[in-house]
Structure formats: structure tokens, C-alpha cells
Amino acid sequence: MSQAYAIEIAGVWKVFGDKAHQAVADIRQNQVSKKEVLEKYNCVIGVADANMQINPGEVFCIMGLSGSGKSTLVRHINRLLEPTEGSVIVNGEDIMSMGPTQLRTFRNEHIAMVFQNFALMPHRSVLDNVALPLEIRGVSKNHRMEVAERTLEMVELSGWGNKYAHELSGGMQQRVGLARALAADPEILLMDEPFSALDPLIRRQLQSEFMALAANMNKTTVFITHDLDEAVRIGDRIAIMRDGMVVQTGTPEEIVMNPADDYVAEFVAGISRLKVVKAHAVMQPIDQFESQHGALGAGANEFLESAHLGDLITAAISSDEAAAIIDGTGKRIGAVTRADLLRTVIEGTETS
Ligand code: ADP
Ligand code: MG
Q1: 8 A C-beta contact, residue 233 and residue 207
Q2: Concatenated DSSP letters of 88-149
């Protein structure tokens, strides 16, 4: 049922060039390579047969190297680009069937975008930048200033409203970009490498602030990044793209524990498992453990199956005994020993 998804991308191809349809047909039938497509049809493959189902309220990251098709794909969600083939369903509606008025309303009220280069108007005040979507919507000046002030507070920029956008640092400008997107209170946020242009420390700080905001707002967010660390940190799920294709979709834990191919494995090799891997992935089933080691003590440390590896390790420092892993009802379903923890950490590091 497509209705249940916030965004559903089905069989989307985007090929740039006049002979795009012929190129897609040829790729389908003869597995023509990207290079051949360029030579034969003078076409560039942007996105190749992408499928994604994004749930309401989730932060969905799209990760891949530069040129892998991330921006091209995300621009289909607000129909800045139209697919060569395939469909894009948002809130149960096929956005390709929208007429101009409906599309305008959709873009003004239901979806907002944050760009890597901030895309602010430098000679407008910060408040006027944030209020812009409301101005377009015809909201009265008093009301939109009130909303803009409130939104600036959410991104910790109260007091900066009367500065010009260009007077602010990069990190602050991107907070303004985020505030502008939020001022319209859209259901869907599209963020195309919003933090990639920022220094690492500022980037991390903005990630944290965004995560805190996202936890409260419950907005469906499509967040693009070329940095798997960032994707793992903020994404509920991640789709990994290569050469226009989606090569793997999963939770950060699924991707780190089971990379689908060498390309994903290369990315994953540099990721710390401590904050990604959860207890249920490293535990031994309780029966198996107890048949080998005897019953777990009643006083063993207990962790939910969703506890992070880092927490288990912290506990293992001060206790020799295996930790008990419990499900949501408090039932003991597994055990984790120090050896289990060490093995997981070692497997996550490069040994070459
Ligand atoms: P990413 O955002 O992952 O860096 P893009 O989506 O920008 O990648 O680009 C994917 C591919 O599509 C690249 O090969 C790029 O050169 C090509 N491309 C993007 N936009 C256009 C366009 N308007 N015309 C021709 N080729 C394009
Ligand atoms: Mg891009």
C-alpha cells in the first residue's frame, strides 16, 4: 500500500539528453554501460532504476560519492526534475499528475528544501529570509515576523534577526537556511548536503542540533550526505547510491554489520561500531549461553536488546559476568560476554 509511505520512489530513471528514452530501453535490454550511453546517445545517466520507500517521520539519509546521483534523485521529490521513467508518490499522491496550481501549493506548503550553499538572499535581513516562504504564501507581515522570530529561536539564533544574512558565519547561515525551511512548517524536509560546506566542529554541532530538532518535530526528512559517519549518526535508515543506482538500503546497524558489496564495505570500514551496533546483533541466545556456561546470575547487568555496544562495553569494564539482554517485556533473551564485545570491535577495524 503506497498510502502508508510518506514518499515512494518506484523504478525512477533520470537520463539527461535528448535520446533519454532510447538510452533507458537499451540499458534495460543490453546492459549498456554509462560510458557507452554517453558515446552512443550523448546521454548522461543521473539515476538508474531507483526504488525507495520512506516512512512518515523518519530521517532517511541518501549517501554516496560525488556524482552518484543523490541530488538528481532528491530533486524528483519536489518535482524540480521529472523522471525519464518511473513514479514518485508523496503522501499517497502521484506528483507527476499535479497541475501547476497544485504543484505550487505542494512546494509552498508541504515540502521545503535546505541547500549546501545556504541559498540565502544576502541583502535581506535574517528575519526576512526566514519569513520568505510565508511571504510567498501571502501571510501578513505581523504574523510572518512572529513565526520567523519563533523559528529563529528553535535554531538558537534569537537576537540575530535584524542582521543581513551575509554578515553571519557559514554555520549560522545554514541555521537560517534550516529556519527558513521550518518556518513554512512543511511535512517533508529535503536537505541536500546541508552541512558539507562547514568545518568539522561546526558540522558536528549542527548535526546534534538537527537531531534534537528532528526528534521533536516528527517531519519526514530526506537528508543527503557524502559522509557515511554523518549518515550513521543522524539517519534512521540509509540508502547508499553508486552510479545512479541504490545499492543498499537499511538501518545504520544493518549497513555496518552487513555491507551489500565492496563499495559499501569500503565506506563501512572507517565507521566505529560502538554507536551503531546494538545488543541484539552481538548477543548469544540465552539457551545457547546457559547450556555452555551455566545460568546467568540474577544480579547480572541487564540491557535492552536495543542498547548500544558502547553501553555494554562500559558495563563490561566493571563486571566480569556476562550481561543479560532483555526484550521489551523484561524477558531475558540473550547474553553478551566480554569476548563477544571484543570480537565485534575487532571485526569492525581494518586489519590490513
Ligand atoms: P551527486 O549529487 O550524488 O553528487 P548528481 O545527482 O549531481 O550527483 O549527478 C549525478 C550524475 O548526473 C553526474 O554524472 C552528473 O554529471 C549528472 N548530471 C546532473 N545534472 C545534470 C544535468 N542537468 N545535465 C547533465 N548531466 C547531469
Ligand atoms: Mg549533489
Answers
A1: yes
A2: EEETTEEGGG--HHHHHHIIIIIEEEE-TT----TTSBHHHHHHHHHHHTT--HHHHHHHHH
Q: What local confidence, expressed as pLDDT, does residue 117 receive?
A: 87
Cell numbers found for residue 135: 511571504
pTM reported for the whole predicted model: 0.88
The number of folded domains in the chain is 2
- Say yes or no: 252 and 233 in one domain: yes
Atom of ligand 1 nearest to the CA of 47: 10
| pLDDT at res. 348 | 60
Q: Is there a single domain that holds both residue 131 and residue 100?
A: yes
Range of the domain at 302: 279-347
Instruction: Provide the b/e sequence for 97-130 (b: ≥16 CB within 10 Å).
Output: ebeeeeeeebbbebbbbbbbebebeeeebbbbbb
Residues 76 and 114 in one domain: yes
End position of a domain, from candidates 268, 302, 330 = 268
- 156 shares its domain with 96: yes
CB 5 within 8 A of CB 87: no
Distance (angstroms) between ligand 2 centre and the Cα of 121 equals 21
On whether both 224 and 290 belong to a single domain, the answer is: no
Domain boundary among 268, 290, 312: 268
The ligand minimizing its distance to the Cα of 245 is 1
Q: Best of 12, 13, 15, 16 to mutate for ligand 1, by most ligand atoms within 8 A of CB?
A: 16
Cα-Cα-Cα-Cα dihedral sign, residues 161, 174, 147, 215? negative
Query: Which residue has cell 558539507?
Result: 196
Mutate to test the pocket of ligand 1, among 15, 45, 72, 73 (most ligand atoms within 8 A of CB): 72
Centroid of ligand 2 to alpha carbon of 126 (angstroms): 26
CA pair distance 100, 122, nearest whole angstrom: 29
Q: Identify the bridge partners of residue 334 per DSSP, sorted by sequence position.
A: 285, 325
Residue 288: is its pLDDT beyond 70?
A: yes
Q: What is the pLDDT of residues 249-286, one digit of tens each?
A: 999 999 998 999 999 999 998 888 887 889 998 999 99
Express each pLDDT in 13-53 by its tens digit: 999 999 999 999 999 999 898 899 999 999 999 999 999 99
User: Are the beta carbons of 233 and 63 closer than 8 angstroms?
Assistant: no
